[in-house]
Design goal:
The structure is a single chain. This protein has about 120 residues and is an all-beta fold. It is about 0% helix and about 55% strand. The protein contains no helices and eleven strands. The protein has strands spanning about 5, 10, 20-25, 35-40, 45-50, 55-60, 65-70, 75-80, 90-100, 100-105, 110-115. Strands 2, 4, 5, 6, 9, 10 and 11 form a seven-stranded mixed sheet that branches. The radius of gyration is 13 Å and the shape is globular. About 30% of the residues are buried.
Length: about 120
């Protein structure tokens, strides 16, 4: 099993930055992949960014060039650096991990982009 704990959300003005962290209860080197999803009110949960155990990354088109996913294997932590934030980025952000075909989720962290 894997427990995931997100942190770093909050209220930020448009154009601002936030860095989300996801701490895992086990070595992330052993996980097949990790990702950040988000869910805005009234909308489906969507994949924002993912990173494989080999370091390959993928991004939602609307965040390319603004968001960066990275991992620190020594700290068992995955990050999402979010720059140039827009009001439409407002959502609950969830960390996700895949281990042996099973998906695990964190509790989510709220990101609100508003002036």
């Amino acid at each position: 099993q894997v427990q995931l704990v997100e942190s770093g959300g909050g209220l930020v003005q448009p154009g601002g930055s936030l860095r989300l962290s996801c701490a895992a209860s086990r070595s992330i080197f052993s996980l097949n992949a990790m990702a950040w999803y988000r869910q805005a009110p009234g909308k489906q949960r969507e994949l924002v960014a993912g990173i494989t155990s080999g370091g390959s990354t993928n991004y939602l088109d609307s965040v390319k060039g603004r968001f960066t996913i990275s991992r620190d294997n020594a700290k068992n932590t995955v990050y999402l650096q979010m720059n140039s934030l827009k009001p439409e980025d407002t959502a609950v952000y969830y960390c996700n991990a895949v281990l042996n075909l099973i998906r695990y989720w964190g509790q989510g962290t709220q990101v609100t982009v508003s002036s």
